[in-house]
Amino acid sequence: MAKTYCFGLLAAAMMSYAACPQRAGQVTEAQPPLVSQASPSASESSSHYMYSTLENLCNAEDNVVRGGLVIKELVKMGMDYSVQLFEISGNNYRNIIAKIDADNEEHNLAFTAHYDRVDAGCGVVDNGSGVAVLLEMIREIKEKPNNNDLTFIFFDAEERGLWGSRHYVANTDDTFEAVFNIDMAGYGDSLMISGGVHNRRGEFIPTTEYLNNLIIELCNENSIPYILTEDKWTDNVSFNAAGLPAASVVRINSALPYPYPIHNEMDNMSIIDIDALASSKDFMLDILRRY
Questions:
Q1: Inter-axis angle of helices 209-221 and 274-290, to 10 degrees?
Q2: Rounded CA gap, 193 and 182, in Å?
Q3: pLDDT digits (tens, 9 = 90+) for 183-204
């Protein structure tokens, strides 16, 4: 999520966090096994994959390496992918796109997440967690019967000002019925739903009312607290600005929505809640099943 927050007392209260390893060769404390090694269930296997993906993203030297890790995972799954290259201010970036074609097309949907990070922390909450969720979604559905054309887009340069999603929207012929963006998936117990604006009276006006209502319905069914917000700092905005229906699902802490453990050294593996990560993945799959 491309926004900076002030941490004040929260930062002082969390000075004892466990830092994420940034480079190979650093000594870190041993972590307990995430799941049983004997015949893991499907849910355990899913959680283990996402956690392992996050560790790899955390240890990546820079955003180029993070993008390479996304491509590596797609190749391991046997997925075809394409790369959309773009240059801004003399710097090179790339969006990574994978598609699953429908057996009998009913809808054309996109699921998106940005893979780039800021320099502080290791970018696992923001937004390695969203990347891990998208990759696990692909793993779980790629061989199953499917009646929707699905596009999975991993954006670069979100943290620079939504550059990746803006470039994609401006340079693609794809038209989607709906775009669901996930940004921050591995922390907290509530969802922030972004897909609208506030008018001068302070009233929230959804620009994608059907998408918001679908997400709210699923929140209510699963007893997940939520808030609606106008968020100008994540990738649904680029689609909304072009008149395309898009909404972002952002996981937050209901007890303390602001500030988030992002864009600072608190964004490391110690903050990741594996149950929150699994819940986020299940929620996005529920969106796909319900649409």
A1: 130
A2: 10
A3: 999 989 999 998 755 555 666 5
What's the pLDDT at 44?
A: 87
CA pair distance 271, 265, nearest whole angstrom: 10
What domains appear along the chain, each with residue ranges and CATH number?
A: 44-88+109-290 (3.40.630.10)
Name, of 18-22, 109-113, 252-256, 287-291, the range with top average pLDDT. 109-113
Q: Which residues contact 72 (CB under 8 A, 6 or more apart)?
A: none
Indicate whether 112 pLDDT > 60.
yes
Residue whose tokens read 């594996």? 274
The secondary structure of residue 157, as a DSSP letter, is -
Tokens encoding 104: 């009998």
Q: How far apart are CA 208 and CA 189, in angstroms?
A: 24
> Does residue 180 contact residue 112 with C-beta atoms inside 8 Å?
yes
What would the DSSP string read from start to end of 76-109?
Answer: HTT--EEEEEEEETTEEEEEEEEEE--SS-SEEE
Please state, rounded to an integer, the average pLDDT across all residues of the chain: 84
Its sign, for the CA torsion 125, 131, 132, 136, is positive
- Asked whether the beta carbons of 53 and 137 are under 8 A apart, the reply is no
Distance of alpha carbon 271 from its chain centroid, rounded?
16
What is the end-to-end Cα distance of the chain in Å, rounded? 25
Residue 151: what residue type? T
Contact assessment for residue 22 and residue 269, using Cβ atoms and an 8 Å cutoff: no
* Residue 127, preceding peptide bond in cis (omega within 30° of 0): yes
